[in-house]
Design goal:
By secondary structure, the protein is mainly alpha-helical. The chain contains 10 helices and 6 strands. The strands form 3 sheets. The protein has a two-stranded antiparallel ribbon. A two-stranded antiparallel sheet has the order 3-4. The longest helix has 23 residues. Bound molecules: zinc ion. Zinc ion (ZN) binds next to α3 and α6.
Length: 217
Amino acid sequence: MFIGHFGVGFGAKAAAPRVSLGTLLLAAQFVDLLWPIFLLLGIESVRIDPGNTAFTPLDFVSYPLTHSLLTGVGWGVLLGCAYALHRRWLRGAVVVAAAVVSHWVLDWVSHRPDLPLIPGGNKVGLGLWSSVPATVAVESLIFAAGIALYLRATRARDSVGRWALWSLVALLVIAYVGNIVGPPPPSSRAVGWVTLSMWLFVPWGYWIDRHRQPVQR
Ligand SMILES: [Zn+2]
């Protein structure tokens, strides 16, 4: 799953308006932001295997530290605690932790059974990715719902608050479509480097957030 995770990040703003969008995107994508680092360090591995599922040519051979349920919860607790210590807001911390854990849940819906419950343990996955139309439908729905919640929860302070947001949304959609219609990546290292570029979306989220304000309800 790709833009569905971003949908969760955007939508979480409604549950914790004082948490920056940058933090929420970081949380919802956290394990996929760690993953390329672990890939490039050789700690986790992926294989290019066109047709592995209908949706992706990636065979997630081993990613026990970023994508097991146990470590997913662990990363959530870690990021939630970091937020709580830094901002001293429990609700915000809980939302941050939940956004991190949501990643595993959405991946569990999407992936074929390649997600371990604990490192080295049984692997699970509901396999939404066996259908491209179903994947696109579910993911687009989550993404659109997240954007809608975010738009309800915030309003632009200035034109940057509008354009920074909509350019990010456009870029995510373009990247998503490119992912679906484009050729498979040339190598697993290329996957690592391309995925690493997703870190860019975190400062982008902070930038958007500084130009928008929570709507008082
Ligand atoms: Zn993932």
